[in-house]
Write the structure tokens for this entry.
Amino acid sequence: MTKDPRWDNVVVVDHPLVQHKLSILRDVATGAKEFRELVKELAMLMAYEATRSFQLHETVVTTPITDTTTYVLAGKKVAVIPILRAGLGMVEGILELIPAAKVGHVGLYRDPATLQPVEYYCKLPEDIGDRDVLIVDPMLATGGSAAAAVQFLRDRGAHAISLLVLIAAPEGIDEIVKTCEDVTVYTCAIDSHLNDHGYIVPGLGDAGDRLFGTK
């Protein structure tokens, strides 16, 4: 699918390894163990792209041969914020890449009467406003939960926020673009649409159920 020109803040991570692993992830025959491993690996690969804009500063190190000028990360530290429960599957892969990152959690459910996201749990690093925040959730369907998570984080002082999702629906991207200014969305694929039950088509089914072996 061609990316809508209105989606300037959307980055599709189309690396061959990402697309290969995503194909296996989609397959209904992929079991829970392999599914979890693939989600972890894809999250790590996506984090490479999401951290591309991180700032560097010069330092001097001594090699076995001589002193040399090299570069290390500068500026703010990182917070990884999974949206419960499926977002948990993406955390480990990012922590392997950025082991010093702190992890917060946001839990949401949809009110059956109002259909609006309701926060039932939120635990964040105390210095969230001083960190680059990566919100992670495998699926961006309607975008309601992700947009609510962004707002909850902003209410608590977060500023630099990116959203990492494995698969996105156009409807979800439209919601984030409309309601969440300055949030960059990273995804491995933009699928066709949502069906009548709110599932992404072709998608991969319920990511939480496939991660944890529930139905």
The radius of gyration is 18 Å. The longest strand covers residues 77-84.
